[in-house]
Amino acid sequence: MNKFVHLHLHTEYSLLDGMCRIEEVARQARQYQMPAVAITDHGNLHGVVNFYQEAIKHGVKPIIGSEMYLAPGSRKETGSTSSKEACFHLTLLAENETGYHHLLELSTDAYLEGFYWRPRTDCEILSRHSRGLIWLTGCLKGEIPTLLAQNEVEKAAQVLGRYQEIAGRDNVYLELMDNGMPQQRQVNRLLIELGRRLGARPVATNDCHYLRQQDAVAHEALLCIQTNTNLEDPRHLKFATDQFYFKSPEEMAAIFSEIPETVKNTLEIAERCTVQMNFNTYHLPVFHPPDGLTPEEYLRKQVQQGLKEKCHLDWDGVLDRSVSNEVIERARFELMTIIRMGFASYFLIIQDFVSEAKRRGIRVGPGRGSAVGSLVAYLLGITEINPLQYDLFFERFLNPDRITLPDIDVDFCDYRREEVIQYLRSKYGRENVAQIGTFGTMAARAVVKDVGRALNISFGELDRITKLISSEPGASLKVEMQHNPEIKNLVEADPRMKKLFDISLKLEGLARHASIHAAGVVITDRPVTEYVPLFKNAAGEAATQFDMNQVATVGLLKVDLLGLKTLSVIDETVKLVRQRKGISLNDFPLDDEKTYQLLSRGESLGIFQLESKGMQDLLRQIKPEKFEDLIAILALYRPGVMKSGTLDVYIQRRRNPDLVEYDHPLLEPILKGTYGVIVYQEQAMQITHHFSNFTMAEADHLRKAMSKKDREEMEKLKERFIA
User: Fold this and answer.
1) Given the DSSP bridges, would you call strands 120-121 and 172-177 parallel, antiparallel or unpaired?
2) C-alpha–C-alpha distance, residues 496 and 230, integer Å
3) Please, are residues 632 and 674 in contact by the beta-carbon 8 Å criterion?
4) Residue 1 in this model has a pLDDT that exceeds 50
5) So what's the pLDDT on residue 584?
6) Mean model confidence pLDDT for the chain
7) pLDDT of the residue at 320
8) Cα 214 to Cα 43, 210, 491, 509, distances in angstroms
């Protein structure tokens, strides 16, 4: 059987141009028994970590690359009147780790230094970062193919000579494509002649933009979305043929049967390209404490100080005998775990910038997410909530059995968030701090609107159709088409609607655009670009090309610094109350009867998370009387909980305590506060711990599997739970 490796492929991260979903690419390569497959997205490296993991998972070697945009002169020159004039295409593949790190530098520089129409590189910077890279000369938009198409053979020879001089003769391959376009065949013939003359080998690629041939129409619609045109416009952007798909080795061998070495050379390149990504090392910045202490010693000292100030406890002896020693035991356990896992600097860094913000009078949130389960975070002043008071567990935040980076979210008043980021840059170095990228995806309603415009369906008709689709987060078109009778009837009755939904299904969930995460910031021990590439958004702000999950995967410290308008409102309100009434925030009681009466009447406009009409109705039904009631209301007002009927059961039992029942006596102490209803993930952990004798860390494994609906993991734990 002929073998072949795709070396030129555009995933969904060739934004609004590539349609090859990463998981499907890896699966298809495995099915075709390809030893390897490459990712070469346009001008970026957004998807390389996901691509690497999926390829490895499917037993296929990942080849990391990018189709770079090459400026005709200097990357810093501007003045071209179109993107065609501004750049050529050049495919770069990382041969080894050195090449991969050069790709990170080149891709970053293309955005930060060379951006004009596109993120561009040039031969000057390529000559500085050429080691470990294999060059392919690109599609018809490559510099050499462009010159050959214009019959500028000698100029093309000069360019090839320059490439070989920069990259090394054996590292430059002439890229041949045959997607059924006559011009490609003409250029291919000239490329082979040029290669024989200058000792450059040819290699076959297919410029894959979609997975299956029948996806060509959906891809054409995707290009219309990118260029804001429609399929009926005779000038709309489209590919000349339907051959830009993930062809089998047999298909590629047949296309290049007259020049079989082009297929063989894909295997040679695949053999050469061996990048090993390391996901087992953390690259955390080191906190340098005063007085020459180690981070571990200083953290211990800070925790002891917090115990004295907040709990009136001494590490080695109880000062206030009325306080349980449970506090010290919990502090010891958490501290030991944090130090053993190597996260002492992490906690000190968070404490440092939170303390600095408070010192500057920047309003900081009391804590959010699983981090409020950490007593150490409370003692350090990172959070303001004592986890023991609310039965919150450290293991949900930091599981001792599974070393993953902790994740502490910190909220600041919105207009002073940038001040905190500037402080981090001054403390840890500008090159060591960056905001984190994120991707907007084509969700169910949005993709139908986008595709509808590409099909030239009127705004009014589109509006009517999209209103039939669920607006819930995570809504799926596939599910809608199976279970929504109105949509089923629409698709069955009207061929236009069938086409609309068929194309929308193929595009749903693809990345639509890159932007900057509202909160995520990364802090590293060395310049960020040694680990991740950066890009620049339309406003000129730089961020990582990797998203939050990929940043964590490569072992970088990420923190969520969210700017909240609510905190700014609270800050102004507290100042006004202080001025007019002389009351400080610490004087506000949590058991104020009039406040609960106000909320029970549903008068919650302007109150964070309580102001929607649905929430006002819920407040009137539940009639909160204590702070814990508000916590339950926020946990219960979620689509899944309401759909399951859990909310109704809670309300009925709250109104009539006689209806409260427990399936087992062990449940009563755990669920008494929520009338026998499981409301919180912590309760699921407690139940697992008490019923099955799982440790709290093991209970957290089950909690996580439940929250992610991971059936495979739940099945593994089920047998042990029952035993």
Assistant:
1) unpaired
2) 14
3) yes
4) no
5) 81
6) 92
7) 62
8) 26, 9, 19, 19
